[in-house]
Design brief:
six-stranded mixed β-sheet, seven-stranded mixed β-sheet, 16 helices
């Protein structure tokens, strides 16, 4: 849908986070006389009133009946379309759109590479932009990575290419925008965000909408993922990575088919799984028709993103690693693999979305760290599973009411030597606003500057 098509329609905004504010600013600049209704909390209504927009009405009665009185509802990504209010509103005729759909509707000719996956999508998108820029291509880095698309509608001069990260909340919106991406990358699929999607099956369905419904010209898929490897896409050409005929790793060496490119051990990406993201980025570059082999060595100058296996520093013999972005047990297992052979005290637990931790617990029989401290709402459930295997795994196990206490217990386990690893495998909701705030608190408690660890390099157009 084009923004101009909203003229004369009954339009509401649902949510007043960063995306909601960006949607308001955009609509007001393009359609200055369009009345808007904002559905939000009482506190957010006060914030909205401070704007002095006489054509903006704030309402706190967020019901399906109220939302259904509008022809178009532009909702924030964090609001599930499967909630009772959303379902009722749509049944009453309201069309729910996100900012991603609006952006794509306004950019039918843009050369876009959209990246999604349960884990690694931010790093892969940033790495993609970094490599393209190293090749002299003016590239925008935006989306779920920290810069909403609605905030970069018309950058001047316009970028040649767009590297866009999409969460599972946004992938379906690309199809809703009516414009197919040039290249769509799907990295992997693990259960996540089940509270938003309602089930694992629907999570996978929504995630794959980027390639099954949006019909990109080229879909770049991970041949090593058991679900993706079986995917058939009649409307798109498929390019595989982690495949012997494409970009893949043999040990630590990067290959394009049978051609050796370079040893990746010097690439500043912690963990072999992270360096595997380089294969995805290079396959996407190649899909754009750009020679990727010449750009691959530029990965050596990539600056890693915060909150992703981020080493903060060492104090009193103990190193502190911030992997707050870890929100699934699979991500925590990958983090442990990066520190194999080291003395590790692991902090796990947070918001309980009902994910299954049995595989994680079973893995601790053979690859457990020195100690594990559970915390958060799902901490007791994880703790109970780990108690069943602690004897075989030979690891210390304790629980803590909060992050500060968990860190104290982890430090005690290490006895002045080793690594405190925050890789919680769960979201932070209920304790912190998001994973960034959790990471900052981890840094503060450890004695490091929390503001010095959060900047995402390369956002915007360069």
């Amino acid at each position: 849908m084009r923004i101009s098509q909203l003229e004369g329609q009954r339009v509401a905004l649902w949510g007043w986070g960063r995306e909601g504010r960006a949607a308001h600013a955009l609509l007001r600049s393009r359609l200055p006389s369009l009345p808007l209704t904002l559905f939000c909390s009482q506190a957010e209504a006060v914030q909205a009133a401070a704007l002095g927009d006489g054509l903006l009405t704030a309402r706190t009665d967020i019901t399906g009946e109220a939302l259904g009185g509008f022809e178009v509802v532009i909702k924030s990504p964090g609001i599930s379309p499967y909630s009772a209010e959303a379902v009722q509103a749509q049944a009453r005729g309201a069309r729910l759109l996100g900012g991603t759909a609006l952006w794509f509707g306004e950019h039918p000719e843009a050369r876009t590479v959209c990246v999604t996956g349960t884990k690694g999508k931010s790093t892969t998108t940033a790495l993609l932009a970094h490599l393209l820029r190293a090749g002299g291509h003016r590239t925008a880095l935006a989306g779920n990575i920290g810069l909403p698309l609605l905030e970069v509608m018309d950058p001047q001069p316009a970028p040649q290419l767009w590297a866009i990260e999409l969460s599972s909340y946004q992938t379906g919106a690309v199809a809703d925008g009516g414009v197919a991406p040039e290249v769509a990358v799907v990295l992997n699929l693990f259960p996540e965000h089940l509270d938003w999607h309602g089930s694992q099956q629907r999570y996978i369905q929504d995630k794959l909408a980027l390639v099954t419904r949006a019909h990109p010209r080229i879909a770049v898929l991970n041949a090593a993922d058991p679900l993706l490897s079986k995917l058939e896409l009649p409307h798109s050409r498929i390019v595989w990575f982690n495949h012997a005929q494409g970009w893949h790793l043999r040990g630590d060496v990067l290959y394009r088919g049978d051609a050796e490119v370079f040893d990746t051990r010097a690439v500043p990406l912690p963990g072999r799984h992270n360096r595997g993201n380089l294969c995805a980025a290079l396959a996407a570059i190649e899909a754009l028709g750009i020679e990727a082999s010449a750009l691959a060595p530029a990965a050596l100058t990539f600056q890693p993103l915060p909150n992703r296996l981020q080493t903060l520093g060492t104090r009193n013999g103990i190193s502190y690693v911030n992997d707050s972005i870890s929100t699934t047990p699979h991500a925590t297992l990958a983090a442990l693999e990066c520190f194999s052979g080291q003395r590790i005290a692991l902090l796990v637990g947070g918001h309980d979305r009902g994910l299954d931790w049995h595989d994680f617990a079973q893995a601790m029989r053979m690859q457990a760290p020195l100690g594990i401290v559970t915390m958060g709402a799902n901490g007791p459930r994880i703790h109970a599973l780990l108690q069943e295997v602690a004897g075989q795994g030979g690891f210390a196990l304790s629980s803590a009411p909060d992050l500060a206490s968990a860190m104290q217990q982890a430090e005690a386990m290490l006895g002045g030597q080793g690594v405190v690893l925050l890789s919680p495998g769960a979201p932070s909701f209920g304790m912190y606003r998001d994973y960034v705030e959790r990471g900052k608190e981890f840094a503060r408690i450890a004695g490091f500057d929390p503001e010095a660890i959060v900047a995402i390099p390369g956002l915007g157009v360069a």
